[in-house]
Amino acid sequence: MRYCINCCIHLLPYDLHRQCFRCRGPNHNNQKCPVCKGENKIPLYTDSKQMKLLAVLEGRTDHRESWNGFFCLRKGKLCSLIFGLIIMTLVMASYILTGAKHGLLLIPSPFHYGAFTSNPSLMDNESLSDMKDHYQPSKMNISYVKDYPSIKLIIDTITSKIEFITRERPDLEELRKQEPHMFSVIPNKFLPNSKNPCWYEEYRGNTTTDPYATNSYALYSKRFRTIFDYLRKVFWNHLYHYKDKHYRLRCLPHFYIIGQPKCGTTDLYDRLRLHPDVRFSAIKEPHWWTRKRFGIIRLRDGFHDRYPVEDYLDLFDLAAHQIQGVLQSEAATERGKMNNIIIGEASASTMWDNNAWIFFYDNSTEGEPPYLIQDFIHAFQPNAKLIIMLRDPVERLYSDYLYFASANKSVEDFHEKVAESLQLFENCMLDYSLRACVYNNTLNNAMPVRLQVGLYVVYLLDWLTVFDKDQILVLRLEDHASNVKYTMHMVFQFLDLGPLSEKQEALITKSPASNTRRPEDKSLGPMLPTTKAILRDFYRPFNTKLAQVLFDDAFLWKRT
Fold this sequence. Notes:
By secondary structure, the protein is α/β, with parallel strands linked by helices. The chain is built from 23 helices and 16 strands. Strands 13-14-12-15-16 form a 5-stranded parallel sheet. A 3-stranded antiparallel sheet has the order 9-11-10.
């Protein structure tokens, strides 16, 4: 290995290092060359010891020549650096242009708004003094006020694009083609002496067979394994034996609590299941119609294996065992005797969550789903009863945020998320219909808060395309909270449940409310008045239409 003693560059074999004017050939004599004399040479030291490179490696104290060596060494690296900067600039320019076009720039929202005081009428005639009593603005959110007009323009654009257009209902044959297995399992007719859609299904296993070995609910969730362990123990005792064959009773729910989330569905569920004639699925919210049958376990985890309809039916085995006991009793053999037990299911996603359709169903029209959840439920259960609990959509959204946000929750953060979601919704409405945006999976996943869940009338109108109005009971959480006894009587009457004793009724109506706001969330206080004003403006046209459909101005939520 050779080195040039004048500029310390490593030389390859036979390399004369001709770019250095002191290494020009074998006839060059360092002793006779005036430039190469040793008077200006200093030895190179490392760790206090003189360093030797074959001979003695020396460095000259010639600053002009040092700069020549520097440019000789760094020329290639400098070119590479300049080239890299050019490429990075082009990439950033492409990102900015593309992000601006699609509204996907990863930059903070330009809308900062807070204690809105310039127009108190936007608070549904709430006075300025009421607003001050409700919330004392801080210095941080006062600066948001000036941006309210920009947000109002977004809302005005959305409002101008709203059209409530009746969807076309798909025919039964189209539904069969989409879900052939489901139609092969669930029959067309059910037992006549049961309020529930129940039927007998032949069981081909033996006493050693585990009927729940492949149930996805049992496999993917530890919480449900205790339930299925019990079902395994009692399964064989509840089979119906006829002509050397074994049959199990299968049932679907008689009624569904279909929505909405953060509107009191858990409290309604907890009270209803105290009724002696009501049974629910083994899991409060199976989410089978909306998610599990598509293979969605957790939305953030993507798709897994689809849950077959048999797994869903397993969840009603506890109720089916009790119904079968009544059907086989001597009293049930009396002519015209009807089993009074009814089964319910309370997945709060059933009303609104159709996000998975785009991955499974083709032939969509301008981004609208060709098939909805209610189409399939109606195909099997045209007489099903549906219960909907609603709440002021403004308060529902804030409650939803407090419940699902994992960290850094604040009223200011809620402001920002509302602003970003409104921008995204506006972008969609500029190109697509209202229904296409409401059921748009990409949009719904992109919005930081679930604005679309509060568009109650859009979902209700779609359910009314397949179910009659008298099959749907719509309640308000505000009424339920103020008079539990009244709303529960409405539910009992709607479900044709028999009368209760005073003790039973007291147990149902006087029990404490379920799933209330957590203490740490209460400490954040109410949303900022400006946020409420903005959301009131956004939801107003939808609430107006909802009140018209239900013939009830209480659903305007003017003062809540």
